[in-house]
Design brief:
heterodimer, A: about 180 residues, mainly alpha, B: about 260 residues, alpha+beta, 5 helices, 10 strands
Amino acid sequence: MYSLSVPKENRNESKERIAEETQRLMEQYGKDVLRTSYMFLKDKYRAEDAFQEVFIKVFHKFKDFKGESSEKTWIIKITINVCKDILRSSWLKRVMLTDQIASRRGVFDVENRFIKKDENMQIFNEVLSLPPVFKEVVILYYYHGYDTSEISNILNTKEGTVRSRLFRAREVLKTKLGGRFEPGE
Amino acid sequence: MSEMKNFRNIADEAMNNINVSDALKEKTIKRCVKKTYVPFGRLVATAACGVLILGILNLPGVMSNKTPEVGQESTGNQEANLFSATNERTESVPGQSEINILNEAGADNEWQYETIDEAAIGFGTGLLVPAYLPGGFSLETISAAGQDSANAERVLLSYISDDRSFLIIEQKSQETSEFQNYKKVDINGITGFMKTGRTNNEGTAEIQGAPDPNTTVEPAGTGVGFVNTEVHWFKDQIYYFVSGAISEKETLDIARSMKNVKY
């Protein structure tokens, strides 16, 4: 919320500048945000909802970003939190949308068929099927290339916990994928 | 043999149809610069809670000890279970997230207050706000419904943190009722009704078994779910409802800390 002491014209100028910055970040990291959201939410429309929420948060929190992490890390952290919030809220949403979702179910089926088309897709699918606490560390480690220290900062979790979850995630994937799984540490 | 070190390529190949369209960018920027920012989670929760509150207060038989109005027959003791859900996989509908439950009643006007003081003037002295908030939470929006902004019948306070949210709904009500199968709790001398449930990771199905009352997200593994807690109580002809991804302790601490707004 803007301070009342800031003249209106300055507020507008500031708002425009932040909008430009948000647009720049969207160009630079938008695909990462959308695809990370997709991996969490497993539906491209929900991922697009998440994308919007992420950049709206970026817009509103831009002034608070102190550069303590890279812009990308800041945005990915917001993305993960938004996705968690959406997952957490989805049972509520179902109450509202039960009657309206039936016609959309076909879209997911098509995507499901698509992602199962070969071995790589099976790995992708298994990662997406992991419980969120495992999936988030796998995505951050293997997709975004963060190390466990960076992941612990992003998730506000102890590094030991991150390592443990990564280990357990690999065990789950190894069990499901058998010989097709190579951890590639 | 595929290796996880190639996961970036594997994932990008799988998601080659997941791209940011110009329309999505444009829509997002438009939403950014709108004066009033209403986050997705709040809207979803608002929508659902609207259903809940309308269901709880208007559907006959939902609560026990509720006397049917003249000409109205009770339909029994059906329980209002906020955590009931099916096992169906569900998807969202773009744009549908901006459902606002405050219109669900049909006849209500709806609006947002900028400050608690404005809401207190519109709703009256019964408006309570929590003196305690769990760490990281802040007030996000104040939605209301009723005749007009000077005569609010219902106020919804939405609080969010980085990864959690909860709501407080306050509605003028002539009725006081008891909730079946809810735990009775004391809220500053008044009996409240609390229930905690949890849903699966997708948020689509209820998980059986009592969650840890002090955690909001349980350890990973089979049966992992999100904890949601709700508490209801009535005071001075106002119905109060707190619900969200918060523990039982946090919910009670919030409810017990709620105080009148001085304006």
